[in-house]
Structure formats: structure tokens, C-alpha cells
Sequence to fold (423 residues):
Amino acid sequence: MEPSRERSISREQRPPPHLLLVSAPSHAAVRRVALARAISFAGSTSAFVALAASLYASTGSAVWVSAAALASFAMPALVSPLSGAIGDRHDRRRVMVVSDLLGSACFAVMAVTSAPLALVSVKALAAVVAAPLIPAAGAALPWVAPEGGLAWANSRLAAAGTIGSLIGPAAGGLLVAGSSASLVFGLNALSFLISALMILSIRGALGGTDEGADATERERGLAAGFAFLMHDRELRLVTMAFAAIFLGIGLTLPAEVSLTADFGVGAGGYGVLVALWGVGGLIGAWLASRLLRSWPSGPVLVVAGAGVAVGLWGTGASPLFGLALATIGIAGVAEGVWQVAQQVLIQHRAPDAIRSRVLAANEAVSQAGLAIALLVAGVLVNSLGPRPVFYIAATSCAVAALVLFASSHRHRAVATPPESTTS
Fold:
């Protein structure tokens, strides 16, 4: 069997032993990063629900809610080249901690203001200062993951983010209903501080400062991540496929609401449908670490893309709401597997000196697919109905899986070897 590439990469890209504060990476370090991710996601998603509810209550306009969504989700994509470069050029622990502290300050300000323009403006600023944290954490993960356990570490990180995203909206809605949005903003400010403390508690190096970058990588600067993605054939195909999958998922977002209305299950049914997607993501994150023990990431990505396509097609074709819940859960499982496998692939192939920029660039491309979908999804649902839109979305995902399969079969490419050891 071919030696594990993870082992060779981790030995080359981690610092000499005398620079480490601990003798080796550990499961505990990964769990602390994951806990920080869960806390941060729970706080941020609860704050978004509180912001949307507060804006609608004070203005009665969905335009302000749309503005809040753009501030929350579009701003990180717009600044992704810069946020990725920050995670490569500076110590990643410091980047994550400073990002958390600045985010905490922004939400503390939001807790003491109620003007819609001020709330949206500060939320946009909070999204910008928080943007470096995700790519920096992803780039740092190979430094703290146990040797041979990179898939396990990514599955824990993905599961933590999903759990936070499931808990946050429910908590935010209950707190707003029982108290006020200001309380939620204040609690989110506290969650950022807790996340910073969790990161600070991780001993050892986390990379950054672009040590080891060659002259070409430094000259490319902010564009180094995009350049690497486009020049690495395997990553280029996977990134384009991920954009197609996000395009499909984005098309289903407004279609889900319309589909549950067709089933006659109302808002409660819609909530259950969304929750099943999240639960599927949790299962997918757990499953991915097991699949990557035996399979290279290339075949795993092909199967995951096909799984999303099958799940979305089945949801559109389901005659019963219960069957639609099962198929949307399948799509969620497959998407969760994809997320972990793709992260592992990038962490294996991207040099540590530009890894944060590569992760940020990949995220920006996938978010572009989501943005395009959201621009046309409403019109498609209104003109075609929800079920044809699910079929279109499934087709986009199926094409992505077929392209990856045909490419890997033609070139006999193996994206990464199976994980040699996991926990």
C-alpha cells in the first residue's frame, strides 16, 4: 500500500520538535477547536435570527431582513481573498483569537443599539472581522490533528458547526420571544469570548506567517489561493463540482417552502424539513471519517455528489411528506460527507504556506454558486413550481458527480490515500 500522504505532509509542514509546546498533536486539541466552532456557530446563527426578527418587528419590511442576510453571508465571500491571506501571513492562533475578540466587540455594540441601519452596518462589520477565522481554523487543523486522523478531525469540526447551526436558530427565536434581541446579541458577544479562550487553551503551533512559501506564492499575494486551485487539476475539478452542488442546494432553498405548502404541512413541516437536512449533515460528517479509512477522497466525493443528486430528486418526486423527509435527509448526509472529504483533500494538497488562502478561495467559489442560485431560484419556483426546481437542482449535482467520475476514471487519479489510522 502507498504510504499515507498525510504522514509525509504533516512531518514536512509542522515545526521542528523544539518549537512545539507539546510533544505531539492530540485529540483534545481537535475537540477544543470543534467546541469553539460549535459555540461560535450557535451564537452567530442565534444572533442572525434575533437580528432578522428585530428588524422586521421595527420596520415591517422584508427589505431590511434581506439586507441583514447580505451583511451576514455575502460579506465573508467578498473579503475571502483578504481573510485567507491573513490566515497565512500571521500566526493562526492570533488570527482566530483576534477575529473572535473583534466579533465580540461588534455584537456588544449591537446589544446597545436598535436603529436598523446601525444594526445592519455593525453586522456587516462583524461578518468581515469574523471572516478570517474559518479558513485559518481549517488551515491549522493538520497541525493539531493526530497523525492519520485528519478525516476524523474534519468530521468533528463539521459536526460541531452543524450542531451549533441547529441549536442557534431555535435558541435565538426563543430568547427573542421571551426577552429581546439585545440579550441575544450580548450572549453572542460572550460566545465569541468563550471561543477565543478555547483557542488560546490549545498548546502548540498552529501555522501561519507564510514560512516556507516560495517567491511565486508570495508574489501572487491575495490571488495565491485561487491560482493554486486553478493550477491543481484535482482541486480545480472538485471546486467547480462543489460550486455546481451549491448551485443545486441554493435552488432548493425557496423551493422547500413552496413544497411544504403543497404538502399542506405549513411552517411546522418546513422547520422539520430543514432540521432533517441538518441531522443528515451530522450523520454525514460521522460517516465521512469512516469512509475515508478505506477509500481515497476522490471516490468518496463522487459517491457524495451522486447522493445529493438522488436525495434532491427523490424529494421533488416524493408523493408523501414522510418520504420527502427521508430523501432530504439522504441529501443532507451526502452533503455532510462531501464537506469533510473536500476539506481533507484541500488540506492534503495545499502547502501550509497558502492553505488558508486556498480554503478561502474554495469557499468563495462555492458561495458564488449559491449566490447565483438565490438570484434565480424565486423566479424559477414561481414559474415552474417547487418539484421541477428540485429536479433541476438534482441534475446540477448529478452532472458534478459524473464529471468527477469520468475524470478520475480517465486519468486513474487518486486524490488522497485512505486514512492510515483514525479514532
Notes: The two ends are 20 Å apart (CA to CA). Residues 221-411 form a domain with the Growth Hormone; Chain: A; fold (CATH 1.20.1250.20). The longest helix spans residues 27-59.
